[in-house]
Amino acid sequence: MHIVCSDMEGVFTPEIWINVAEKTGIEELRLTTRDISDYDVLMQRRLSILKENNIRLKEITEVIGRMELLPGAREYLDWLRERVPVIIVSDTYTQFAGPLMEKLGWPTLFCHTLTVDANDIITGYNLRQKDAKKKTVEAMRALKYSIISVGDSYNDISMLQTADAGILFNPPENVIEEFPQFPVTTDYDALKGEISKVLKG
């Protein structure tokens, strides 16, 4: 029995922080785990920028509410769920994900939470657990499932390495070069093909 553990941003949805950067005009908020492999370094910088610019959670969720899924994402997810259970394993936050999960038809999502003060300023982030993507795959494998993992960024690599099969979807060149062991797909048809090969195994 297989389970697919998939990243969210870059696979089903655009990058939330890039959209926030475009809305606020703060170029540094465009940095993601495609650029910086240390997630804590990245998040601490983001939180500092939000505080310096007095950007509230409501402003971010308004941006997210206007975001659309990547073209074909919902159809791909529907195709996938007809064939295999799917868990979206993301480094996003429950306070961010709602509008996007609704557009995806409320799939199972494992993610983190934010600490927000009385003034609606994000003051911290709370990891569900350290290296949660990898730990999710380990837990599912301990239950005797075979895991197919899909991701695009540095923070997905440990999940892909721990899975029975790891697949990169639209990754940047630096990730492709550093991790040549994973098949690379650039559209949903190719991704379906790689997943189908594993399922037929």
Short description:
With 201 residues, the chain is an alpha/beta fold.
Percent of residues in helical segments? 40-55%
The CATH architecture of the domain at 2-13 and 70-113 and 128-200: 3-Layer(aba) Sandwich
CATH hierarchy, class of the domain at 2-13 and 70-113 and 128-200: Alpha Beta
Overall strand count: 7
Q: Please report which band the strand proportion falls in: under 5%, 5-15%, 15-25%, 25-35%, 35-45% or over 45%.
A: 15-25%
Structural class: alpha/beta
Which regions are unreliable across 5 or more consecutive residues at pLDDT < 50? none
Shape: globular
Q: State the strand order across the main sheet.
A: 4-3-2-1-5-6-7
N-to-C CA distance: 11 Å
Mean pLDDT: 94
Radius of gyration, whole Å: 17 Å
The third-level CATH topology of the domain at 2-13 and 70-113 and 128-200 is Rossmann fold
Q: Could you state the CATH homologous superfamily of the domain at 2-13 and 70-113 and 128-200? A: HAD superfamily/HAD-like
What can you see in these coordinates?
- Helix content is 44%, strand content 20%.
- A 7-stranded mixed sheet has the order 4-3-2-1-5-6-7, sandwiched between helices.
- It has a domain at 2-13 and 70-113 and 128-200: Rossmann fold.
- With 201 residues, the chain is an alpha/beta fold.
- The model has no long low-confidence stretch (mean pLDDT 94).
Features:
single chain, 201 residues, alpha/beta, Rossmann fold, seven-stranded mixed β-sheet, 7 strands
Give a topology summary.
Elements: E1 2-6, H1 16-24, H2 39-52, H3 57-66, H4 73-81, E2 86-93, H5 94-103, E3 108-116, E4 122-126, H6 132-142, E5 146-151, H7 157-162, E6 165-169, H8 173-178, E7 184-185, H9 188-200
Parallel strand pairs: 1-2, 1-5, 2-3, 5-6, 6-7
Antiparallel strand pairs: 3-4
Helix pairs in contact: 3-5
